[in-house]
Amino acid sequence: MRGRTPLLGLLALLLLGVLAPLPARAASGVLRTPECQGDWLPATPTSPDIMNGKLSFLDLPAVSIGKQVDWRMDPYKNRSWEMMFQSLRWVGRLVADYESTGRDDYLSRATELARDWVARNPPGGRTTSPYAWSEHPIALRAPALVCLSRHVPDRWLKDSLAVHAKMLSDPRHYDAGHNHGLDQDIGLLRIGCRYRQKSWQRLALTRMARSAKLDIDSEGSLREQAPRYALYVYDRLRVAVDTIGDCGLPVPADLATRWKRLPEHISAATQPNGYLVPIGDGPANVQPAGFAHADATVQVFKAGYVFGRTAWGDPQSAYYSIRFGPGQKFHGHEDHLGVTYYAQGRSILTEAGFVSYEGTPYRRWTQSPEAHNVPIVAGAKLRPRTATALTHRSIGEDRQSFTLTDRAYGVRRSRSVLVNHHDDVMAVLDTAERPMRDLWHLDPALTVVSSGKGKVVVANGSWRASLVQLSLPSCRPAGGQKIVRGRTSPYQGWVSPAYLQRVPASVVVSPTAKALLTIVVPGTDDPRVTCSGHTVIVHAPGGPVTLRTTSSGGLA
């Protein structure tokens, strides 16, 4: 027949990839569409929850929305909860499950909810939620409404998607080089492909490629300064690549390359226990899937990270992180010169972590230097967003050392970090032009069992570790450490192990000095430390570890 491709020819074209395969039908007989399927939808709330009028986000108690939804509700005064509510992705969950089950009541309720939202939330309207048309809810809502449009051809929905596309196209609201920008591009591309608007497709794809180059450097490091967001961006780029494929468009080569490099950065930031190191806006309970990793056990990223470990695939491996690089931005904290340390199957030195985005005094403290393992210059004011230089590195198989310097407090401060493997020891030498003090945040699982004469001993069950501090150049014990735990005025001695959680954790506050050597020795409560000139010998459980302090303030 004229205008039809013969069946054998059509099959051949499908096999060659010239034509995209036709959408499959579920057992219910309903068309399963690429716009509604995939892993872009949240797992909670479930469709039965929504049909019962119960919404649960962020593991917070479910909220009853009733038949007539109050679109201005914000029950927890929580920006993330409100964003998820206004995104309507939970409405998209109903449509996706309609495709799988054929339940017409799912589609009817999704249509009812979306139509009510559109009617009561016009841009700038009197009844409109203040957060409804913020850039991120718009970006996340667009794919949900596109999904619905595959089953509801009504004019009100098409018109609303046109408004969404206009908003997403507006450069004044676009977040280039940021995960929000990626979500905006996905939303615009979905709308452009759904209605065959080439200009929207081209804009979304061009911006997506350019933004990925700004957000992910050539080494695969995310520039948003929080490893947790590298995981988010990786997952969202997978959605972006799927969306590009659904549209029948080629994936930009540079975007694909940078996406594929992210896993090595994520793996490097993953501790031996399988959880991401809690740097920046990232809690300690984020556990990535097993990503490919580099062969090297020590990796230095120009974006401002050193990640090192004894070995891959060993839960008992020692592990450390060091922060330097560009000044604080996006999801980063004022954590430059900060270190973390994990050894013998335990986290020892950690960070305060991430609690939420609300601008509370506690949230502001978690972003401050006081919530990190850093030297703080006494009586000096922090200069926010100061860059830190990595001025020296020496990477051997069993020992590495690094030196970092900046002027974050208006005077030069320097930190030299030496990590010895197998006979586990971490040594940190801090110097400054004015007296400074160190803060050492201990993992909440550790209990301080003794403190005095420059030595703090911590325990986890029968296991022990010691933190020894020496004044330089005398190399005498630096006594006078204070242990702070669970203080609220001002905040100190807390860790947020998960979103919206905080638990007391001990912090060692050092005495002030212009030069201070801190030595962490896992596995013992009695490490002998001896000095002779610039030579320091640490008698670790596995044997003596020798290090040298240099006249320039380094460790070797």
Automatic annotation (TrEMBL):
> Where does the protein end up?
Periplasm
Q: Which residues are in the Heparinase II/III-like C-terminal domain?
A: 327-500
Q: Where is the signal peptide?
A: 1-26
Instruction: Write down the superkingdom of origin.
Output: Bacteria
Keywords of this entry: Lyase, Periplasm, Signal
Primary site of residence: periplasm
Q: Which Pfam families match?
A: Hepar_II_III_C, Hepar_II_III_N
**Ranges where the Heparin-sulfate lyase N-terminal domain occurs:** 62-238
Task: Check the record and name the InterPro entries matching this protein.
Answer: Chondroitin_lyas, Hepar_II_III_C, Hepar_II_III_N
The protein's name: Heparin-sulfate lyase N-terminal domain-containing protein
Its lineage reads:
Bacteria, Bacillati, Actinomycetota, Actinomycetes, Streptosporangiales
